[in-house]
Design goal:
By secondary structure, the protein is of the alpha/beta class. The protein is built from eight helices and seven strands, in the order ααβαβαββαββαβαα.
Length: 250
């Protein structure tokens, strides 16, 4: 085992680390939550990561996204994330897709080739399609619920979608999963009620620009450095623990 991961090997053991090195994980969304998932999986020794995101780094991402710096503004997030992964583990195989995932673009991905799938995107239609495709392929999937307008990272937890409460996005997802016959779904969510956003000058300008661009979004959520990052790290921990587990447990 590489010296870079020797401290992790002490915790999980050699066989588990070999399973991580031989695993391929598909991550949809490498922003506030997904970026930290990628970071933690790379630092845990996962051998292959496929990164899907069509967005570029914006100045407003700097407060919460691990790939966002002054130097990365304007660059594709998947390209910046790939460079970061290789700066951590040059041997990690990384494939990038500058794609906005929706049911219309799902055929670009063969879900059967993955050991785990991560849903860290915002659109409900895209999230549901990811979940349906992963379930059909028999691949474990974990989905991130709302992290916007939250300030208490200790409120994030892992649960089945049907055990969630408070979170507005989880409420929508519960209803839609039930309609589609999805009987279980592992999610990361917060029981903290979203805070009422302050109508700052920057928010007003951003909403006006979004409306001018044809966006139908009614609001733009605020975020912090510690809410989405914790959600991402919790999701990554679940993935690593699941991949390391054998029939006798970790």
């Amino acid at each position: 085992m590489l010296e870079e991961f020797c401290r992790t090997e002490i915790v999980y053991g050699t066989k588990a680390m070999e399973r991580l090195a031989n695993s391929r994980v598909l991550i949809f969304g490498v922003g506030g939550v997904g970026g930290y998932v990628v970071e933690a999986l790379a630092r845990s020794g996962v051998g292959a990561l496929d990164l899907v995101d069509n967005d570029t780094v914006a100045r407003s991402n700097i407060n919460r996204q691990i790939i966002a710096t002054q130097a990365s503004i304007g660059r594709y997030k998947v390209e910046v994330a790939e460079e970061r992964v290789h700066s951590i583990n040059p041997d990690c195989q990384v494939r990038t897709y500058k794609t906005f995932y929706l049911p219309e673009t799902k055929d670009q991905f063969d879900f059967t080739q993955y050991d785990y799938v991560v849903d860290a995107i915002d659109t409900v239609t895209g999230k549901l399609s990811i979940i349906e495709e992963a379930k059909a392929a028999g691949v474990p999937v974990i989905s991130s619920m709302g992290a916007g307008n939250k300030i208490h990272p200790a409120e994030f937890q892992v649960a089945d979608i049907y055990e969630t409460s408070i979170c507005p996005l989880a409420k929508v997802m519960r209803k839609e999963c039930k309609k589609r016959g999805i009987d279980s779904l592992k999610v990361v969510y917060s029981k903290e009620a979203p805070r009422e956003p302050h109508m700052t000058e920057a928010l007003v300008k951003e909403m006006e620009a979004a409306k001018a661009a044809g966006s139908t979004r009614r609001s733009i959520p605020g975020s912090t450095a510690f809410a989405p990052s914790v959600a991402g790290l919790i999701a990554a921990a679940e993935i690593v623990n699941d991949l390391c587990a054998d029939k006798k447990g970790i």
